[in-house]
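Checklist before submission:
- one chain only
- standard amino acids only
- sequence pasted in full

Submission:
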Amino acid sequence: MRYNLVIFDNDGVLVDSEPIANRVLAAYLTELGHPTTLEESIRDYMGSAMHRIHELILERYGRRLPDDFDDTFHGRVFDAFREELQPVPGAAEVLEKLRADGVPYCLASSGSHDRIRVALRKTGLYELFGEERIFSSQDVGRGKPAPDLFLHAAQTMGTPPERCAVIEDSPLGVQAALAAGMEVHGYTAMTPAAKLGQAHARFADMAELPALLA
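Returned file contents:
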């Protein structure tokens, strides 16, 4: 293994949450008078921390989202997750192989701590992490594409950035990993490969990932 730490994004990489979350987000923004399709939500907000949604809406419409927007959105998303969410095929097997090989790994997500845990518990992946290996943009204040989250995860795990591999499925996440000085592998099951063109490597099936990391 040529990396000392593998950092996984959560949404879209470990759990198949992006279609669900963006469907809920598009519907809620439309309800609030900001017409948004599922495709537009994926294009504009996939991989974003919540603060970026607020900033883009204010920039585009000159109006702030309601004070309770985050709580209402997360409540709706969590309800949908509990009904529908599934793990990304092959994700558990990759994590189990890394653990068996003694390769450290962790999770670094733009999502809130609550969102991460709801998703991991519903999909049965929580036991493969535990509290000490879960990092959220809430920990650093600035989400992707800023490098802060990945740098925080690497520092906490005691690994230099240049010895880290990041597994991402969004352009914002790829930008953040590169800005952190890390190698990044782009997962293209949902995102067109061309949009992850800056990644060091791209793959469409989790079964391909162990060979890329070796």
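Reviewer check: The beta strands are 5-8, 105-109, 134-136, 164-168, 183-187, 201-203.
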